[in-house]
What does this fold into?
Amino acid sequence: MSTPLVMFLVFIAITIGITYWASKRSAGSSAYFAASRRVTGWQNGIAVAGDYMSAASFLGIAGIIAFQGYDGFMFSVGWLVAYLTVLLVVAEPLRNAGRYTMADVLAYRLNPRPVRAMASISTLTVSTFYMIAQMVGAGALVTLLLKDSGISYHTAVIGVGILMIGYVVFGGMLATTWVQIIKAILLMAGTILLSILVMAHFHFSLGDFFNAIGHVTYHEKGQEVVKDFLQPGLRYKPPYGALELISLGLALIFGTAGLPHILVRFYTVPDAKTARQSVVWAMILIGTFYIMTTFLGFGAATIVGRDFISTHGGTNMSAPLLAQALAGNIFFAFISAIAFATILAVVAGLTISASTSFAHDFWTNVIHKGVERKPGEEVLVARISAFVVGAVAIAIAILLGPTANVAFLVALAFAVAASANLPVIVLSIFWRRFNTMGAVTGLSVGLLASIGLILIGPSLMAVDPPSVTGTARHLIQAKAWFPLENPGILSIPLGFLGAILGTLLSHEPSSEHKFNELLVRSNTGLGAERAGAV
Amino acid sequence: MSEPVPRYQAEKTEWDRIAETRAFKDLMATKRSFIIPAFVFFLVYYFLLPILVGYAPQLMSTKVIGIVNLAYLFALSQFFMAWIVAFLYVKAANNFDNLAQDIIKEAEGQIKKRQEAR
It folds into this structure.
């Protein structure tokens, strides 16, 4: 058995143990959906970091910086700064006024059924798209990382899928939380170690390190080129590069605070003060991690080199290959196992947020008008829907195959979160006049604008040369109608506009009347859900 | 011509009463006076980065320390900006918590008083 496989199996064994332990503590809605609201501030902070830092950020960002230098670092910055929106605007009101999902906050003063139905559709869209992107990535990655063990793409996707379903179905939020905590600790440890090794390679001289970044050598179309990788513009070029950067920034800054799998984490703590502390913990970890992408990305560019990475698995393999170059196969195996843990923790978080929204928003509140017919039904429905969501994600990931172009799904998830979810959350907390019609139009316009603009954007519309085949080809073989990969710059204003116009075109005095209740609850925590006994 | 909408008839709830108290209005004013400037500041500081990198790449390529340019230093400063704003917010929020505690105590006291009156 190869070393990476052994390390994968060790991680799997530990997480199964945790799931078994958690399964005995997950009876009842509050326990299953919110870990009984007894997760502490630092625990939840680490779990938020573990929930958030996906394979796209660990392997993807290292790869983008290794190939396109400075421009990749722009992602790192946005991913941290976005937490200020979470901290200043959404985390505390959400914890004070909600129970299990973001729709709880909307449902306070709006007509619950249409609002919850739309919020649930939006949540499921964000979570499922994000999950499919992660699963396809996971499949391709596990195949590469475990290539000595001969594990196929299908086996890898099914394996990852079964594990994530297992954590969520049996262990609920408690198991998910601890899988995320362990993953975040492993990820931080691996990244710190890797950064130290990169610096050791440069004899701990920042000057030598940055000088090397200034002269990165690689081959492009058979020509040797030397580039300054700290120079902006390797990825985002005129004429649309600047707009794309701003649009990406908007999607990150406003999207993170609308990601359902992040928002549900704030229901797992006892009160708003702890929710606030957990955001700060998360920001310390996330910020430290993304600063270190400097060492990961530029380290891979200077020590391993673009040429070598291109012929040994491509951009996503930059970090593992850097580990191999610096400290051999055991360290490669360790970093690979961390990548694997990273994927599992994120997909588990996505699965639980999707299934919670379906069970709590759609099943209990839309179909059965807020009444749980028998005790435990909501949790049972959540378990079944976790299974279904997981199975659907496995099936789609297998249908798409390892070469599918799925990076746009992550951009789509952030765009929907920023254009549909965030506007209605913010308006419902801050605008007295806001009403049901506004929430429904805001969610629909934000959702449709994001999907529509990505559909006619360069991610799905482009003319490929005949050498590109199968699912790697763009869906629509024509020049893109919308020039940006990130639709945020247009879809976020559209989402807000939809919500505002929908509100102004209708009258709902009861919503205005109940605003004071939401205002008092969300700002003081009066009457907030308490932590339960285990 | 549309019919005039009838005014919504409802009695004042306990929530309305709390929302109109001096203490609650103070809490909201205190929160606003920190959160709004902090939010605007971080948005401006953050979006200056993609705007400058996108529209003034020459300026941002100015080397400051050795090879390290303005673009990288400004990007790096964003991390510290985020941490500092978060730190200041947590400090300010301790005060919000105290104000909120007073409101909760007052509200719970009112409910108790009413129960005893019955």
About this structure: Chain B touches chain A through 53 residues (CB under 8 Å). The first helix of chain B runs from residue 14 to 19.
